[in-house]
Amino acid sequence: MKIKEITAFPVRIPHGDESEGKDRPAVIDFGDYFVDEQAFTSIYSKHHETTVIKIETDTGIVGWGEAQSPVSPRTTQVIIEDLVRPLIMGRDPFDIEAIWTRNFGAMRERGHPTGFYIDAIGGTDIALWDIVGKATGMPVHKLAGGRYRDKVKLYAGMGGTDPEKVADTAEEHVGYGYQALKLHLLLDAEGVAEIARAVRKRVGPKIMLMCDVHMRQSVTSATKLGRELEKLDFTWLESPLVPDDIPGAVALAESLDMAVAIGEWSRTRYEMREAFERRAYDIVMHDIARTGITEGHRIGTIADTYSIPVAPHVGGGGILSVASTVEYSASCSNFMIMEHSHHANSFKNAITAENYEPSNGYFEVTDKPGLGIEIDQSLVEKYVVS
Ligand SMILES: [Mg+2]
């Protein structure tokens, strides 16, 4: 079998969601994009943006993948067309690891060991796994390590600034069947703790709670906040510091009893080696639509060597990000729990022939070949950014 064509579709799907984060601190508006006014944190789109990848073979089998592109999906498209396409044309899709290594090496010396380029080769890797699954009639998880579990446990994400409103949203999601919730709280440590108290009071002691503070804390404020969250039996404090502060993450992981979860921004084992060696991770949360399935498994295996659980990040990823993370999670020995956005899943499904949905807080692991999801190209084309 040979790769005959690769096509990247940069898509922008309008948001329909009103309940998972519209209530947030003040932002600076940049047209389709915005950033927080009070912190130097990530730029976000007002829409759902990502890059969908299609790989065609000479046998007629087609694979789909996603290179997560929460902003500027056209950047990823150009990388696929100008760099990845010539590197993979004519190759056998079964040479998945060899193709990843060739792709990674091609731009390593040029200073692209992370970011858009690695997202592009990660999305390509996902599409190749889909092809190999379809060619063998097997689900990806069976080929990428085997089935460790029959269903993949999810936590639902939500945000806000008003304690009672966030507690309302938390209660709503418990009503959908989620037993685990994560709060995205973009406030100072005192404001975060106040919302955390309101949510714990509302949902009771049995619901697993986590808190993501999106790099807004110092070691001192995160330590103080962590102590408050420990009293409320929160499972993890996520992304407390800027990504580069590995010594700070180590200090925090040592001083808190609760877990500190980081790593969504990292894409390869090379990038993560120091954090593993210094035990900066209590829980590692790499994102499969950034790492790809091949490198994602390598990172998961290293985590297992250090007795570190894996809680894959999905964040702004689209429906192929969700499906590839389910397949990865099913085949990851040290999997803990997977991120999910309950309401966002409906607009992510705008490109599927058949809705890909969890039920009662879990994705069932199926025997469908490949990623187990059907993409409708005419729907993808409808949302292409011109
Ligand atoms: Mg996060």
TrEMBL record:
<dbReference type="InterPro" id="IPR036849">
    <property type="entry name" value="Enolase-like_C_sf"/>
</dbReference>
<protein>
    <recommendedName>
        <fullName>Mandelate racemase/muconate lactonizing enzyme C-terminal domain-containing protein</fullName>
    </recommendedName>
</protein>
<dbReference type="InterPro" id="IPR029065">
    <property type="entry name" value="Enolase_C-like"/>
</dbReference>
<dbReference type="InterPro" id="IPR029017">
    <property type="entry name" value="Enolase-like_N"/>
</dbReference>
<dbReference type="InterPro" id="IPR034593">
    <property type="entry name" value="DgoD-like"/>
</dbReference>
<dbReference type="Pfam" id="PF02746">
    <property type="entry name" value="MR_MLE_N"/>
</dbReference>
<dbReference type="GO" id="GO:0016829">
    <property type="term" value="F:lyase activity"/>
</dbReference>
<keyword id="KW-0456">Lyase</keyword>
<dbReference type="InterPro" id="IPR013342">
    <property type="entry name" value="Mandelate_racemase_C"/>
</dbReference>
<dbReference type="InterPro" id="IPR013341">
    <property type="entry name" value="Mandelate_racemase_N_dom"/>
</dbReference>
<dbReference type="Pfam" id="PF13378">
    <property type="entry name" value="MR_MLE_C"/>
</dbReference>
<feature type="domain" description="Mandelate racemase/muconate lactonizing enzyme C-terminal">
    <location>
        <begin position="163"/>
        <end position="259"/>
    </location>
</feature>
